[in-house]
Specification:
The chain has one helix and 25 strands. The strands form seven sheets. The chain has a five-stranded mixed beta sheet with strand order 20-24-23-22-21, with no helix packed on it. A four-stranded antiparallel beta sheet has the order 2-3-6-7, with no helix packed on it. A four-stranded antiparallel beta sheet has the order 8-9-10-11, with no helix packed on it. 40% of the residues are buried. The chain is mainly β. The longest helix is centred in the N-terminal third of the chain and has 16 residues. It binds beta-D-galactopyranose. Beta-D-galactopyranose binds next to strand 8 and strand 16.
């Protein structure tokens, strides 16, 4: 009798609590399906053949401050780029080190002494290639370039092609946005991080066109993350305070290379003035759910970068079309409002 009651209670609990939706607890240690903390910082998401792929910076080992730096330049050895896969955005399986760092050649862009940050991957339907763009820098951040790598498979291994200063411009924090018509755009903090640029990539996504637009001029914004809602483009950014959090802002445009209008902080709720102690990385469109987005951010731990965590929150548009990122201790896709 006791056993039957326990079984019944278990079934009731499963029915009541398991809604089948992914569940997020922002800021908590996020373990992959084998129980290891997900190591994919400053990341981005690719959706391909019914699977989400999460690419991010591998931050492993001791954190130290670069000697002689006048700012809080904390770093770990560049660990390359990890790739995880998931069907539901909650349960992630480690796939691979999609782009490996170089341990031998100090002149190589991917040498462990360098900076490898904010990887973003898109799929090119014309060439059948997966293309990764990322921020490549020297440890004092004076190199300020964008690197590109390609692969035939989403999990890599990606082959590094090289790095550029797009149209001769400095390039640090970045993201890639792929539009519905297949055109792809590189958003990058430029001009000593004072001004953001948006540059249309060539059709193969491997190079920059000369369509390079300066936006948010002298507003000193970084950590760009972009989405499209109701045919308008939304760009979320942070201020420039290194690993320390600050207030986010967003900008809107009707035409991606047109005029961008800057607005104030889209975050709501406790600690919204520090983006909930985090910094934007990417906006994930939830597949199969029209106009559902997830704001993906990094809660950096600057003196122990490996212990940095993730803050994923629902990004919703209110009836006036204004984006809002609302703090939740815990939430589920589909039940966020
Ligand atoms: C942040 C940037 C990070 C990383 C860090 C280094 O401002 O968003 O990606 O570059 O500075 O201090």
């Amino acid at each position: 009798m006791k056993n039957i009651s326990i079984t019944l209670l278990t079934i009731i609990c499963i029915l009541v609590f398991n809604t089948g939706y992914a569940q997020f607890i922002p800021g908590q240690v996020w373990k992959d399906v084998t129980g290891n903390p997900v190591n994919a910082h400053g990341g981005g998401i690719l959706y391909h053949h019914n699977t989400y792929y999460w690419y991010g910076e591998i931050k492993k080992g001791p954190t130290w401050r670069v000697p002689g730096s006048t700012w809080e330049n904390y770093r770990v050895n560049a660990g390359g780029v990890s790739c995880y896969s998931s069907k539901d955005l909650q349960h992630w399986a480690f796939e691979s080190v999609a782009l490996s760092p170089d341990k031998a050649d100090s002149t190589n862009d991917l040498y462990i002494d360098k900076v490898i940050e904010r990887p973003k991957v898109i799929f090119n339907r014309k060439t059948g290639k997966f293309v990764m763009w990322l921020h490549i820098d020297s440890k004092d951040y004076s190199y300020a370039r964008s690197g590109v790598a390609v692969s035939d498979r989403p999990e890599g291994p990606f082959k590094y092609v090289g790095s550029v200063r797009p149209n001769g411009n400095m390039a640090r924090d970045m993201t890639i946005f792929q539009d519905d018509n297949g055109k792809a755009y590189h958003f990058y903090s430029s001009e000593e991080n004072s001004t953001m640029h948006i540059c249309e990539l060539t059709d193969d996504y491997l190079a920059h066109s000369t369509n390079d637009k300066r936006i948010l001029i002298n507003l000193s914004r970084e950590a760009p993350a972009v989405c499209k809602y109701n045919n308008r483009y939304y760009l979320f950014t942070s201020g420039c305070t290194g690993w320390s959090p600050n207030a986010a802002s967003y900008a809107v445009a009707d035409n991606i290379l047109g005029d961008w209008k800057q607005y104030d902080n889209p975050c709501r709720g406790i600690d919204s003035d520090s983006t909930f102690h985090a910094q934007s990385a990417y906006v994930i469109p939830v597949q199969g759910k029209k106009n559902e987005f997830i704001f993906m951010a990094d809660k950096w731990n600057k003196t122990d970068l490996e212990a940095s965590r993730y803050v994923w929150l629902p990004l919703v548009f209110n009836s006036a079309g204004k984006p809002e990122i609302i703090w939740k201790n815990e939430w589920q896709i589909g039940l966020e409002k």
